[in-house]
């Protein structure tokens, strides 16, 4: 069993508005051990399309502190373990707009290597595509329903999510959904011995990126 905490992250927002809500679910083995979330003041305009999707409007968020006040939290989390998201490009792009890099921290894919980088990330979208090829969709909500996790997700959301943020496209709700998908992989017999390095390799965006990271055996 992997003994390193993995921090599953979801952001609501865009390059235009900036991050207007964050959600983090920390996974240790198959257990969610901590969660973090709040609304954040936008740094730009929230579009009608984004507002309709995540339900956050300027009046709701303007009194909140901006996301950049969370440097201590996110840099500390990254020092403890790698980040994970469902479709990493979105979250990686948004956090890099605020802070291009964290403090120097472990790489986690290469033992003993440190770097001032948010990478490498795990990606539940890519992991499920590689481990379960041929599914009709790999959208977050579809995967949760396909693998029978909706009831567990709703029960967990009632404990951890604000009362008005217990649905898809709410940051912590989506982070919990991704965390349950990742935890479910650890219960698969054939993946019981999968290492953190192997999961990171399978999360790479391309075969060339995987090859550049080294061998892909279970370690």
Give a quick precis of the structure.
The protein is of the alpha/beta class. The chain has helices at 48-54, 58-61, 71-80, 88-98, 124-131, 140-146, 150-160, 171-186, 196-202, 207-212; strands at residues 6-14, 18-28, 31-39, 83-85, 105-106, 114-115, 122-123. The protein is built from ten helices and seven strands.
Task: Give keywords.
7 strands; disordered C terminus; globular; Nucleotidyltransferase, domain 5
State the strand order across the main sheet.
3-2-1-4-7
End-to-end span in angstroms? 12 Å
| The first-level CATH class name | Alpha Beta
Q: How many H/I helices?
A: 10
Write the CATH homologous superfamily: Ribonuclease H-like superfamily/Ribonuclease H
Structural category:
alpha/beta
How is the biggest beta sheet arranged? 5 strands, mixed
Named at the architecture level, the CATH assignment is 2-Layer Sandwich
Query: What fold name goes in the CATH topology slot?
Result: Nucleotidyltransferase, domain 5
Query: In percent, how helical is the residue content?
Result: 25-40%
Tally the beta strands.
7
Total domain modules: 1
What spatial form do the alpha-carbon principal axes imply?
A: globular
Beta-strand residue fraction: 15-25%
SSE arrangement, N to C: EEEHHHEHEEEHHHHHH
Cα gyration radius (Å): 17 Å
């Amino acid at each position: 069993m992997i003994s390193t905490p993995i921090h599953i992250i979801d952001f609501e927002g865009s390059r235009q508005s900036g991050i207007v809500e964050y959600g983090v679910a920390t996974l240790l083995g198959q257990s969610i051990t901590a969660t973090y979330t709040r609304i954040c003041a936008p740094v730009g305009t929230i579009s009608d399309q984004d507002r309709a999707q995540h339900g956050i409007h300027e009046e709701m968020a303007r009194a909140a502190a901006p996301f950049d006040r969370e440097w201590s939290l996110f840099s500390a989390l990254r020092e403890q373990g790698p980040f994970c998201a469902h479709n990493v490009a979105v979250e990686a792009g948004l956090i890099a707009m605020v802070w291009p890099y964290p403090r120097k921290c472990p790489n986690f894919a290469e033992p003993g290597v440190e770097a001032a980088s948010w990478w490498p990330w795990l990606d539940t979208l890519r992991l499920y595509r590689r481990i379960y090829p041929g599914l009709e969709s790999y959208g977050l909500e579809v995967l949760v329903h396909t693998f029978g996790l909706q009831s567990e997700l709703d029960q967990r959301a009632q404990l951890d999510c604000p009362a008005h943020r217990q649905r898809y496209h709410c940051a912590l709700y989506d982070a919990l959904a991704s965390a349950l998908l990742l935890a479910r992989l650890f219960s698969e017999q054939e993946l019981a011995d999968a290492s953190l390095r192997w999961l990171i390799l399978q999360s790479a965006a391309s075969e060339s990126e995987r090859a550049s990271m080294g061998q892909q055996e279970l370690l």
